[in-house]
Design goal:
By secondary structure, this protein is mostly beta strands. Helices cover about 0% and strands about 45% of the residues. The two termini are about 15 Å apart.
Length: about 475
């Protein structure tokens, strides 16, 4: 997982861009303050921290701390201890010295633990997440009608299973898909406040618990229905949640406006005018091969079987479950391993028999479990910034953009202020447009998205901060985490 580490003065552990220097002069969680934490197989307490340039944090024999290539593997390994307060300590296994800071520099010289050796961890993963309870094997789900959160969803294909992690002044606020916040009371709150501020404790592997900042009680599912609320003594580690990226569940609609659906456990037909739970597919994209696996709610994959048949009874390891993806103006074509494209017969049955795609092989993909996107590029999150007339792609805090699906694979992008994204003559974007423009969204990898602007170019993040629609090719800075 990716984390930021905050010392006793509130400064972030920072890996400098030039040289191998390390300090705690960072005031916010940016690129230089993000560390990839890795663990030894079978040893969750033995960790390494890798900086943004790919070099690990290491301690020299004289106590100097830097980022670079270690002379011995032990230099870059630390024993992780998580205290009851949630604070981390990082200790060298050989020398038994702790990682510490004096408010500016970082070193490793003392064997006795003090407040200067404590580090508070902050999750640096993408903030749009799903919360999975390992104890109950269920996901958290917002109930808008009752204004509560239940931990009762076997599969997170619903929009209500998505949450945003909002970090403010060292506290974590848990925002629901409806824009409300989990609070100390069982009811959701309309906005962030002291009642919605929780302390997030992290363990390796993206395990997290949320505790009341003032009283120390923790959030965990309670009762037969799994109501998420505060309690004093959870049983069997029920307070721990696995934080996962919000999964991309989609629906596929044919040119005849029929949704692909699984019937009789394995047959796939395009017959429904409205999507049902069996019309939902997890879109597992492999960016290196540009192939996708489509998994249904029954945990089986679409697979090409002999005689041109496509069924929904495949296993993840079968090569016949990988389909090549071709995007064209909002439509998607899926080519089976045998070389033929997926299409539908007049009766609606899904087959793979066309060597060249036509109208029957054309599908419109819709996001099934999200009405908004949180976009993060190479330089930061996308959103509007005070004092700037254009949308920026280098923000530290996320700003959701609502996606309004239209006909023929078109999306309209809308800010939460209900204004639309507008394309300027300079090919940048204003968040204050009054008219809706047409955009195409293309999934290009695991949680990676490309956006085609109304001028036919891909939207990229400029080094100076602006969003610009001027790229005819999908370059690295045209891909957005979502």
């Amino acid at each position: 997982m990716q984390v930021g580490l905050v010392n006793w003065t509130g400064g972030f552990l920072t890996c400098e861009c030039y040289g191998d220097g390390v300090s705690v002069l960072g005031s916010s969680l940016g690129k230089k303050q993000t560390w990839r934490l890795t663990t030894e197989p079978g040893k969750q307490d033995l960790v390494a921290l890798v900086g943004h340039h790919g070099q690990p944090l290491l301690a020299e024999a004289d106590g100097t701390v830097r980022c670079g290539r270690p002379a011995a593997e032990q230099q870059s390994r630390f024993l992780l201890d998580i205290l009851l307060s949630g604070a981390w300590t990082l200790q060298q296994p050989e020398s038994r010295k702790f990682l510490e800071s004096d408010g500016e520099d970082v070193f490793c010289v003392a064997r006795g633990r003090t407040a200067r050796h404590l580090w508070m961890s902050q999750l640096a993963e993408h903030v749009h997440v799903a919360l999975f309870s390992p104890g109950s094997r269920l996901y958290a789900r917002t109930d808008p009608e009752l204004s509560r959160v239940w931990v009762d969803a076997p599969v997170p294909y619903l929009e209500e299973c998505g949450f945003l992690l909002r970090f403010q002044k060292g506290a974590c606020h848990l925002e629901t898909s409806t824009g409300q916040f989990v609070s100390r009371a069982e009811k959701l709150a309309p906005g962030p406040s002291a009642d919605t501020a929780f302390h997030l404790t992290l363990k390796p592997g993206c395990l997290a618990s949320l505790a009341d900042v003032e009283e120390g009680r923790v959030l965990y599912p309670q009762g037969s229905r799994g109501l998420l609320c505060l309690g004093d003594r959870p049983e069997r580690d029920k307070e721990w949640f696995l934080i996962q990226r919000c999964p991309p569940w989609v629906s596929l609609r044919t040119r005849a406006h029929r949704f692909l659906s699984i019937v009789s456990d394995s047959q796939v037909y395009a017959g429904l005018k409205k999507p049902s739970p069996m019309s939902m597919f997890l879109f597992e994209m492999d960016s290196s091969t540009q192939t996708v696996q489509l998994k249904g709610l029954h945990h089986k994959y679409l697979v090409q079987r002999p005689c041109q048949g496509v069924l929904a009874n495949g296993a993840a390891k079968e090569a016949e479950t990988h389909f090549q993806v071709l995007w064209h103006c909002g439509r998607v074509f899926l080519r089976a391993p045998g070389g033929c494209f997926l299409g539908t017969l007049p009766v609606g049955l899904l087959v793979a028999r066309a060597r060249h795609p036509g109208p029957n092989e054309e599908f419109v993909l819709r996001f099934a479990n999200r009405s908004f996107l949180v976009l993060r590029g190479h330089y930061g999150y996308v959103g509007s910034s005070p004092g700037r007339e254009t949308l920026q792609g280098n923000l530290l805090q996320p700003e959701p953009v609502e996606i309004l699906p239209c006909k023929h694979g078109v999306y309209h992008l809308q800010s939460r202020g209900k204004s639309f994204w507008a394309l300027t003559p300079e090919r940048t974007f204003s968040p204050w447009g009054k008219a809706a423009l047409n955009f195409y969204l293309e999934i290009q990898g695991s949680h990676l998205l490309a956006i085609v602007a109304p001028n036919g170019c891909y939207v990229r993040g400029d080094r100076e901060g602006c969003l610009v629609a001027d790229s005819e090719q999908r370059a690295r800075d045209c891909l957005w985490e979502f």
